[in-house]
Specification:
Number of domains: 5
CATH architecture of the largest domain: Alpha-Beta Barrel
CATH class of the largest domain: Alpha Beta
Number of strands: 25
Shape: globular
Number of helices: 22
Helix content: 25-40%
CATH topology of the largest domain: TIM Barrel
Strand content: 15-25%
Bound molecules: alpha-D-glucopyranose
C-alpha cells in the first residue's frame, strides 16, 4: 500500500505546493522548443497499422506490445515519452513481450461498462477503476483510454457494451467514479468519445445532426456531470461530426464549453486518426493528435508559418501536454510489472455479480434449492462464454471462466457428454462462419457459433438426469460495426432450443433458467413467458462463470438494475427511423474514410427524436416496453416509507426509509425522478435526478437513504435563448424502484 500512497502525495505536492515551479519549468522548456519540436509533441509518435505505412517515431511495440499510442520524446530537451493504452474493461496489452519468452504479462478483464452502470453503485465502480489504474501503473501505462461513456441512443450500436446508459446522469456519475478510481494511482483516465458517437457505421465520416437542446441535455450532459464530479486529466474527442464540423475541430465544444464553462483543464486528444484539419484541431483546443501521422506534423508547421495557426495556440497545447507528461507515473515511478492479478480477479468476480440484473424469477426458481445437484446446461454461450466485447475494448486476459466451469466450481454436476457435444459443435461452427464472413469482418470482430440444434433424445436424457435446466443466450459486438437487426432477435435455433427445453422440463415439473450473456439489448417480450427465471449477466469479465454461479447458487443476491430500456420491438425505439439498421457493409467499414456521398444514416444521421431517448421516449408516449429503465429483481423485497423533502437554498434533499421486507439480506437501488410542471418547453414525463444504492440491509431492518440534487438540475435547455431555464411551479418527485415502479411521491415548489 505504501507505493500507492506515494504517487497521490507526490502529485498533490506537484499540483499544490510547487505548481508554480512546475509551470516555470514548463515555460522554460517551451521557450527553448523549436517549431518542429512543438509539432512533434502535439502529434503522437505514430504506430504500425494496417491503415497506413508510416514509420513510427518510436517503436512502441518494443516497449509495451499492443499499447495504443505515445507522445514523442524530445531528447534534446530531456522530454520523455508517455504511453497511452486502452481500454475501459481492463488494460489492453499483449501478454508476451519481446525478449521475455518465459514471463507473461496478463491483464485482468473486468466487466463491461454496461454491467458497471447496471450496479448503480459509484463506490463499486470506483473500486473497479482503481484496480484498472493499479494494473496500468504496474505495466507502465501513463494514460488509460477509458471510460467509454457515449449515450445508448439505439440498441444496435456496436459499442454500447463499453458505454453505460440511455440516461446522462447515470452515465456521468458512473464515468466519474471510474475516472476517480483510475486516477487514484496517478494514471490519467481518458473519458471518451466526446461527443454524440452513437453509431459505428461510417463513424469517421458520419455527421450527427443534433439539436442544441438534445446536445446539452443528453449527449454533452453525461460528460458535464463527469467533468464536474471527477477531474479527468485527459479526454478523447469523437470521430464524428456534429452539425457538419468534426468535434475535434469544434472550439465551441472543446474550449468554450468543455474548458471555459465546465472547468476541464487537462489534455484533449483526438480519437485514432480522427479529424481532417490539424490546425483547426489545435485551434479548437484538441491538444493532441493520436496516433500521429507525418502529414499532421507537416500541416501544423506549415500552418504556423503561413499564419493559419497561431503559435500561441500551439504553445497552449504544448504546455498542457508537458504538464501531463511531468505529472505522469513514467516521470515519477518505474513500472513494477506486479499487477496484483489475483486481487483483481476477485474484484472483477464480486463487482460482476452486483451488475447482473434478475429480470424474472417466478415462484422463486432462483436461487437454486440446496437439493440441486445436477444441472442440464444448454446454449453454446454456456461453454463458450463471452467476457467482453471486441475492438479496443478487448483485453488479453489469462482465462475466461465459462458457465460450465463456474457451475462446476460451485459444486454442481454437468453432464460431460453434453459438454463434449457443444465443444465439438462450437469449434466447427465458428470455422464455418469465419470462412463465410465478408471482408475484414472476421478480422475485426469475434465470430460466434450458430446455436446447436438439440435432438429430443438428448433433451430427454437431460430431463432424467438433471434437477434443473440452464439455457445461456450469447451476443457479442464491438468496435467497427453496428449490430445487424437479426442480432436483436433470437435465432430460429435459439427459439427452438428454448421451446424444447421448457416443454420437456416443465412436463416433469422441473424448472428452466435463462442466462443472457449479452453486451446490448435483445428482444425478450416474445419468449420471456417460457422460462421460470431470467438473469441478465451481461459480459461480466474473465470471472464471468463464477459470478453467474454466485448469483444462481444464492451466494450473492442480485442487485443490478437496467441502465437502459428493453423495448418490445426495435421499431418502437425513437431513433430507429434514423439509425443505420443493416446499412453496415464493407464499403462503410470504419477503417476507410468514406467520402460524403449523402446516404442517410451513413453519411449523416438526423437525431429527430431530440431529447426523447430511452425511457424519456417510451414513458412520455406511454408505450409498452418489455423491461423498463431502472428495473431489476432481488431475492428479497423492499418497502419504501416516510419520504420527506427539504429545500435549502439551491440544494434539494430527499430522505426515504427502505425496509427489507423479505427473508434474505440485499441491496436496493433507490431512484428519484422529477416530473416537471407544464411549461412552454415540451418535457419528458419524468427524468432521473438522483439515485443511491443502499448498503446491504438485513431482513426486517431499515436504512434511511438521503438523495440530494441541485434545484438547477431540474432545468431544461432553451435553445431559443441558448440557456438553461428552471421553470417555476410544482414538481412531482417520484421515489422509485424503477422508472415504472413509483413507491413514494412528493411535491416540490420552485
Ligand atoms: C479507437 C477507438 C478508441 C480507442 C483508440 C485507441 O479506434 O475509437 O476508443 O481508444 O482507437 O485504440
Amino acid at each position: 500500500m505504501k507505493r500507492f500512497t506515494i504517487i497521490p502525495v507526490l502529485l498533490t505536492l506537484i499540483f499544490s505546493g510547487c505548481k508554480s515551479k512546475l509551470d516555470r519549468q514548463i515555460d522554460d522548456i517551451v521557450s527553448k522548443m523549436t517549431l518542429e519540436e512543438k509539432a512533434l509533441l502535439v502529434v503522437g509518435v505514430g504506430n504500425e497499422s494496417r491503415w497506413h505505412n508510416d514509420v513510427p517515431r518510436l517503436d512502441l511495440n518494443s516497449i509495451l506490445p499492443a499499447v495504443a499510442g505515445g507522445t514523442t520524446p524530445i531528447d534534446r530537451l530531456g522530454i520523455p515519452y508517455i504511453l497511452l493504452s486502452d481500454g475501459p474493461a481492463g488494460v489492453n496489452l499483449e501478454s508476451y513481450r519481446k525478449g521475455y519468452s518465459t514471463r507473461t504479462y496478463y491483464c485482468t478483464q473486468f466487466p463491461i461498462g454496461t454491467l458497471l452502470a447496471s450496479t448503480w453503485n459509484t463506490e463499486l465502480v470506483q473500486t473497479v477503476g482503481s484496480a484498472i489504474g493499479d494494473e496500468a501503473l504496474a505495466y507502465g501505462v501513463d494514460v488509460l483510454l477509458g471510460p467509454g461513456m457515449n449515450i445508448h441512443r439505439h440498441p444496435l450500436n456496436g459499442r454500447n457494451f463499453e458505454y453505460y446508459s440511455e440516461d446522462p446522469l447515470l452515465c456521468g456519475l458512473t464515468a466519474a467514479a471510474y475516472v476517480n478510481g483510475v486516477q487514484s494511482h496517478g494514471v490519467a483516465a481518458c473519458p471518451k468519445h466526446f461527443a454524440a458517437n452513437n453509431q459505428e457505421t461510417n463513424r469517421m465520416g458520419n455527421d450527427a445532426r443534433v439539436s442544441e437542446r438534445a446536445l446539452r441535455e443528453i449527449y454533452y450532459r453525461g460528460f458535464e456531470f463527469m467533468v464536474k464530479e471527477s477531474h479527468p486529466r485527459t479526454l478523447m474527442t469523437s470521430y464524428n461530426k456534429i452539425n457538419g464540423i468534426s468535434v475535434s475541430e469544434r472550439r465551441d465544444a472543446v474550449t468554450d464549453m468543455l474548458r471555459n464553462k465546465w472547468g476541464f483543464d487537462g489534455v484533449v486528444m483526438s480519437d485514432w486518426y480522427g479529424g481532417d484539419h490539424p490546425t483547426a484541431q489545435i485551434h479548437a483546443g484538441n491538444d493532441m493528435l493520436q496516433p500521429g501521422r507525418q502529414w499532421q506534423i507537416d500541416s501544423i508547421i506549415d500552418g504556423v508559418k503561413k499564419g493559419t495557426l497561431a503559435e500561441t495556440d500551439l504553445d497552449i497545447s504544448v504546455r498542457r501536454i508537458l504538464k501531463l507528461i511531468y505529472t505522469s507515473p513514467r516521470t515519477i515511478e518505474h513500472p513494477t510489472n506486479d499487477a496484483h492479478l489475483d486481487e483483481h480477479a476477485n474484484i472483477t468476480r464480486q463487482s460482476a455479480t452486483e451488475g447482473m440484473v434478475l429480470l424474472k424469477n417466478d415462484a422463486n426458481a432462483l436461487p437454486l434449492t440446496s437439493g440441486t445437484k445436477n444441472i442440464a446446461l444448454f446454449g453454446c454461450a454456456s461453454y463458450d462464454f463471452i467476457p467482453g466485447g471486441t475492438g479496443s475494448g478487448d483485453v488479453y486476459r489469462a482465462y475466461t471462466v465459462s458457465m460450465l466451469e463456474g457451475l462446476q466450481n460451485a459444486g454442481y454436476t454437468i453432464d460431460a457428454s453434453m459438454a463434449a457435444l457443444y465443444g465439438a459443435f462450437i469449434q466447427k461452427s465458428v470455422e464455418t462462419n469465419k470462412a463465410a464472413a465478408p471482408g475484414r469482418y472476421a478480422e475485426l470482430t469475434r465470430i460466434r457459433p450458430d446455436e446447436m440444434p438439440l435432438t429430443a433424445q438428448q433433451i430427454n436424457t437431460q430431463v432424467q438426469r438433471a434437477d434443473v435446466a440452464i439455457v445461456t443466450l450469447g451476443r457479442t459486438s464491438g468496435e467497427y460495426y453496428d449490430r445487424p437487426s437479426a442480432d436483436y432477435d433470437l435465432s430460429a435455433a435459439e427459439r427452438t432450443m428454448l421451446q424444447q427445453v421448457c416443454g420437456a422440463f416443465h412436463a416433469v415439473g422441473k424448472k428452466v433458467i435463462v442466462v443472457l450473456n449479452i453486451g446490448g439489448v435483445i428482444e425478450t417480450a416474445s419468449w420471456k413467458d417460457l422460462p421460470d427465471a431470467i438473469l441478465c449477466a451481461w459480459q461480466p469479465g474473465q470471472e464471468g462463470g463464477n459470478s453467474v454461479a454466485d448469483i444462481l447458487s444464492g451466494k450473492a443476491n442480485p442487485s443490478g438494475r437496467l441502465p437502459m430500456t428493453f423495448p418490445i420491438r426495435l421499431s418502437d425505439v425513437g431513433s430507429s427511423a434514423n439509425f443505420p439498421i443493416d446499412q453496415t457493409s464493407e464499403n462503410v467499414s470504419v477503417a476507410l474514410r468514406r467520402t460524403d456521398i449523402g446516404e442517410k444514416n451513413v453519411d449523416y444521421t438526423n437525431y429527430d427524436e431530440g431529447i426523447y431517448v430511452g425511457y424519456r421516449w417510451f414513458d412520455t408516449r406511454s408505450m409498452e416496453v418489455s423491461y423498463p429503465f431502472g428495473y431489476g429483481l432481488s431475492y428479497t423485497t423492499f418497502d419504501y416509507s416516510n419520504a420527506k423533502v427539504k429545500q435549502h437554498k439551491d440544494k434539494i434533499t430527499v430522505t426515504v426509509t427502505i425496509t427489507n421486507s423479505g427473508k434474505v439480506a440485499g441491496k436496493e437501488v433507490v431512484q428519484l425522478y422529477a416530473a416537471a410542471p407544464k411549461s412552454q418547453l415540451d418535457k419528458p414525463l419524468k427524468e432521473l435526478r438522483a439515485y443511491a444504492k443502499t448498503p446491504i440491509i438485513q431482513p426486517g431492518k431499515s436504512e434511511t437513504i438521503t438523495l440530494t440534487f441541485n434545484r438547477n438540475d431540474l432545468s431544461s435547455y432553451d435553445e431559443q435563448q441558448h440557456k438553461w431555464i428552471l421553470a417555476p411551479g410544482t414538481y412531482q418527485l417520484l421515489i422509485a424502484a424503477s422508472s415504472r415502479d413509483i413507491r413514494q411521491t412528493l411535491t416540490l415548489d420552485i
